[in-house]
Structure formats: structure tokens, C-alpha cells
Design goal:
Elements lengths: L1 H29 L2 H15 L1 E5 L2 E4 L2 E11 L7 E12 L7 E15 L34 E4 L2 E10 L2 E13 L2 E7 L2 E4 L5 E11 L2 E10 L5 E9 L3 E12 L6 H4 L2 E14 L7 E14 L2 H10 L6 E4 L1 E9 L2 E11 L3 E10 L2 E10 L10 H5 L2 E3 L2 E11 L4 E2 L1 H39 L5
Parallel strand pairs: 5-6, 5-7
Antiparallel strand pairs: 1-3, 2-3, 3-4, 4-5, 7-8, 8-9, 8-10, 9-11, 10-11, 11-12, 12-13, 13-14, 14-15, 15-16, 16-17, 16-18, 18-19, 19-20, 20-21, 21-23, 22-23, 23-24
Helix pairs in contact: 4-6
């Protein structure tokens, strides 16, 4: 019994000493350049990039580094990546599973450029220094030490994700491992694209599993107004497929300078965005949109109709109904099922295309009969179709988008001129006929025998 007791006591002492020895060896290795190179190598293999990691500093279980920089190779999803002010909390609880367990990573700033020069050479997978006793880096570390890293949670305080013509700036993210990938939640920041007005980021719910980023929900807000809700998938090796729901988005910031003084309103509807990756040409954008609180001002065709009809309401037209389907790709915009109506005054229907700054469209214009009462010939020669409480006429619109030409005004002018001429001719004919009748009657009275 005494032998058993001493044996158990000795084992306890040995286990205790062994634990502290293992811990001491592990801590010594964590502080070595071998461990820093190991982390850089693993990160490079994961990201297909050349990685440089700044020296590590230790405080208890926390490890600090000023930053990490990676230049993407030909297979990487990015061109350049920088991490600033890295703090990690590492645990030895899974050391016997050969895992360096990182409980938490905290990054002050993440900056990623998706476009730019890449590394000329692919990242060559090198032997794990811990598993290769013959190498110099492995000679100072036992082979039983962990050879992989697993992360419990990561926080990014400021994200700068940049691509040609736009970027996501200032968004904070929280990331957790999930089914072989990452579950990502974000909020704050601003989304910018080309010359379009920026959108503020309300919330993001994402999931990443290589090679795809799944957008479960992206709630974006227009400063001072509407919202855009996005869902979809970005497969970095294949394509991008997004679905957007627009709610009361102000159109004015998205219009050219010429049209900002002519049109306004709030857009709602469904839009899809598809593009190959890497992108070849522009994306294909299509959908169906509806305009509310719309207003058209100072359009030449409306000004002409106002002059002809003597109705000043045409000069500033409040739209009670405006909608259409569109399809944009490779610089060409096609709009179908277009409707614009100011109820009880005018309605336009038709299709048109816009390409290289030129518009070409075929429309039907309907106006109320009362609007045409001052326009001679308009109802008999131009607005000849009656439907839905309006009189309708065809109209062709073509030319530069900022100053298009239409063929309705010349036809109205020609119809009015023709009606006036016909009226004069008819009046003259009646006068001659009346004179003849009067003269014949006088002769009959004076010369009754001449019958």
C-alpha cells in the first residue's frame, strides 16, 4: 500500500512537472521567430499570398503585433491586404490535439485592395518546420507541438475594402467559425461605387465559405431617405449574383446635372445585378421600378404642349403613376412597359433605349379632350384614338438624352395650320355660294320672265 501511495504521488509530481515543462516549452516556442514564420506561412497558404508578419510581443496569454501584410498571388481573392494593430488571446488547452487555439483576434484596421499588381510567383507550399526534424527551424522545437491554428472569434474595428471605382469603408465586423467557413456580422461604415451617391451601412449578415461570400442580408440606407436591401452570392472564382430591393430611394442624386432640374421622385422596386468575376465589361442590371412623388419640369415637349393647349399645368407635371422594366448591359439601357401619367391631364406609354448618350424611343401620348379644345385640327389629324378617357397620338423621341427631339410638335403645328386654311377655304366657298344665291334671287324678282 505504501508503494502504491508513493507511486501515485510520484506520478502526480511527474505530471505536474511535465505540464509545466510542456507549458514552458510551448511558451518558449510561441516567443520564437519559428512560431512567427509558422503563422506567416499558414496564413500565406490559406490566402494564396506572400505574407510578412511584424514581430510579436507577449503579455500573459495575449500576443500583440503591429501588423501583417500580404500580397496576393495569381489565385488570391485580393491584390493587397494589410492588418494593423493585431491583438490575440491564445490558449494551450488544445495543445495535445496539436492545435494552437486562438480564443480571440482583435484587429484595429483591415485594409484590402481587390485590384492591383499580384505576386509573380505562386506561393509554394513549404514543409512544416515542426514536422521536419532535419530543418534548422525544427531543430529547436519538439515534433509534438501543434502544427495548425484555429480561431474562436475575430473582431475588426475598421474595414477598408476597396475595388475599382468604389469601396466599403469604416465598417466593423464580428466573425465566428461556422461549418468550415465564417459567420460574419457587420455594421456601420459607408458603401461607395463610381460617381453614385454613397449608401450608409446599417447591418450586414454574411457567411463566407471559400470561394463564395453569401450575403444573407445587407441593409443599406440612403442619407436622409430610402433604403436598399441586398441578398445574393459572390463567387470570387466565377461570378456575382445579387438581388436588390429598393424602397423610396431618392432619384435626384443619381441623375445627370441636366436632368436634376427636370425630374425628381422616389424609386421602389426589385433589381438583379449579375457579373462574371473577374469582370469583363460592365455588370448586367435589370429589374422593375416604380416612381412615387414624381415631378417633371421644363421638358421641351411638355412646354410645347402647354403652348398649343393653353394649359400651364403641362409645364410642371406631377406624376401620379410612373413605372417601367429595364435591362442595362455593356453601356446599353433598354426600358420597356414604360408608363408616366398625370391623372386627368396626360399619360405616356412606350419603350426606349439609351446608348452612347443617345435616346431612341416610340411612345403613345394621351391627353384629355378638354386640353385640345384650343388646338385646331388636333383631334381629327393627330390625336385620333380614344381610350381610357384620353385622346392618343404616336410620338418618336430621339437624340441626345439631355436635349432629345420629338416629332409630335411639328405634327400639331401642321394640323393647326391645315385646319385654319381649311376653315378659310370653307368660309370663302360659303360666301361665294351665298352671293350666287342672292344674285339669282334678285334677277328672278326683276326679270320674272327670264325663268
Amino acid at each position: 500500500m505504501r508503494l502504491v501511495i508513493w507511486t501515485i504521488a510520484t506520478l502526480c509530481v511527474l505530471l505536474t512537472v511535465g505540464f509545466f515543462v510542456v507549458k514552458a516549452v510551448a511558451n518558449a516556442y510561441l516567443r520564437s521567430d519559428d512560431f512567427r514564420r509558422f503563422v506567416a506561412q499558414k496564413a500565406g497558404q490559406t490566402m494564396h499570398a506572400d505574407v510578412e508578419l511584424a514581430p510579436l510581443h507577449f503579455s500573459g496569454a495575449n500576443i500583440f503585433s503591429d501588423g501583417l501584410r500580404a500580397q496576393g498571388g495569381r489565385d488570391a481573392a485580393f491584390a493587397d491586404l494589410q492588418l494593423e494593430q493585431i491583438r490575440t488571446e491564445i490558449s494551450l488547452r488544445r495543445i495535445f490535439d496539436k492545435v494552437w487555439q486562438v480564443e480571440q483576434i482583435d484587429l484595429q484596421r483591415l485594409r484590402v485592395n481587390l485590384d492591383g499588381p499580384r505576386s509573380d510567383r505562386p506561393v509554394a507550399p513549404t514543409a512544416n518546420p515542426l514536422a521536419a526534424p532535419q530543418t534548422e527551424s525544427a531543430s529547436s522545437s519538439p515534433g509534438w507541438l501543434p502544427n495548425r491554428v484555429e480561431v474562436g472569434r475575430a473582431f475588426i474595428r475598421d474595414t477598408q475594402l476597396l475595388w475599382p471605382g468604389g469601396g466599403l469603408r469604416g465598417t466593423a465586423f464580428e466573425m465566428q467559425p461556422h461549418e468550415g467557413g465564417w459567420q460574419i456580422a457587420g455594421q456601420g461604415g459607408r458603401l461607395e461605387y463610381g460617381k453614385l451617391p454613397p449608401l450608409d451601412v446599417s447591418t450586414l449578415q454574411l457567411r463566407y465559405r471559400a470561394p463564395s461570400l453569401f450575403i444573407n442580408s445587407a441593409d443599406l440606407r440612403q442619407p436622409g431617405g430610402g433604403s436598399v436591401l441586398a441578398t445574393g452570392e459572390v463567387n470570387f472564382e466565377r461570378d456575382l449574383d445579387l438581388r436588390l430591393t429598393l424602397v423610396n430611394v431618392d432619384t435626384v442624386p443619381y441623375l445627370s446635372d441636366d436632368w436634376r432640374v427636370r425630374a425628381k421622385g422616389l424609386i421602389s422596386g426589385e433589381v438583379t445585378v449579375r457579373s462574371s468575376l473577374p469582370a469583363v465589361g460592365g455588370p448586367r442590371i435589370k429589374g422593375a421600378l416604380k416612381l412615387t412623388n414624381g415631378e417633371l419640369t421644363a421638358l421641351p415637349v411638355l412646354d410645347q404642349i402647354a403652348v398649343f393647349t393653353r394649359t400651364q399645368q403641362f409645364r410642371r407635371l406631377t406624376l401620379t403613376n410612373a413605372s417601367g422594366d429595364f435591362d442595362q448591359q455593356d453601356g446599353r439601357l433598354r426600358v420597356t412597359k414604360f408608363i408616366a401619367e398625370s391623372e386627368g391631364l396626360i399619360r405616356m406609354e412606350g419603350d426606349f433605349t439609351v446608348e452612347a448618350g443617345l435616346i431612341d424611343g416610340a411612345f403613345r401620348v394621351g391627353v384629355t379632350p378638354a386640353s385640345l379644345q384650343w388646338l385646331p385640327g388636333s383631334q381629327t389629324k393627330v390625336f385620333t384614338e380614344s381610350r381610357g378617357g384620353y385622346l392618343w397620338a404616336p410620338m418618336r423621341l430621339s437624340g441626345p438624352v439631355n436635349k432629345p427631339a420629338e416629332d409630335l410638335t411639328p405634327r400639331l403645328a401642321a394640323a393647326a395650320q391645315g385646319a385654319v386654311i381649311e376653315g378659310v377655304q370653307n368660309a370663302a366657298g360659303e360666301a361665294i355660294k351665298t352671293g350666287k344665291d342672292v344674285l339669282k334671287g334678285a334677277l328672278d324678282l326683276l326679270l320674272p320672265g327670264t325663268r
